[in-house]
Write a structure and sequence with these properties.
single chain; mainly alpha; de novo design (two linked rop proteins); 4 helices; 87% helix
Length: 131
């Protein structure tokens, strides 16, 4: 079951990346739209790739670091979507609203994942110190 959950999260990040691609392809064709779109497509697709890297982490610290990078990219994506919405640089605001909801949910998941990994790292270090 744990493997299923891992793949569900990976699939969710891939689906988020696809959503971001669709959003960026729908932006208005202006200097601002193109610039923010370029930023968003990079930050919005990279979490799925960073998640794959985290799964192959060389240590728990490396795992935590990779998740933190993934989280930074999600937060950058959220900021880009806020700019798109406020500017506005897209006609279909529903796409941005859905993207922001999913981004916020993913941020919450990875904040908790990092906290748990840090807690587990602390527990591991405590056990090592006792032996």
């Amino acid at each position: 079951m744990n493997n299923e959950r891992k793949y569900d999260l990976e699939d969710r990040l891939v689906d988020f990346a696809v959503m971001i691609i669709r959003i960026t392809e729908s932006l208005i064709n202006t200097k601002a739209g193109n610039y923010i779109g370029g930023q968003l497509v990079r930050s919005g697709t990279s979490p799925a790739l960073h998640y794959g890297e985290a799964q192959s982490a060389e240590s728990r610290n490396d795992f935590i670091h990779k998740l933190k990078v993934l989280l930074k990219e999600l937060r950058e994506s959220r900021s880009s979507m806020k700019i798109i919405k406020k500017a506005p640089l897209i006609e279909n605001m529903e796409m941005i609203d859905k993207g922001m909801i999913e981004c916020n949910e993913l941020i919450s998941i990875f904040v908790k994942s990092i906290e748990t990994a840090k807690k587990n790292l602390g527990n591991k270090n405590s056990k090592t110190a006792l032996t």
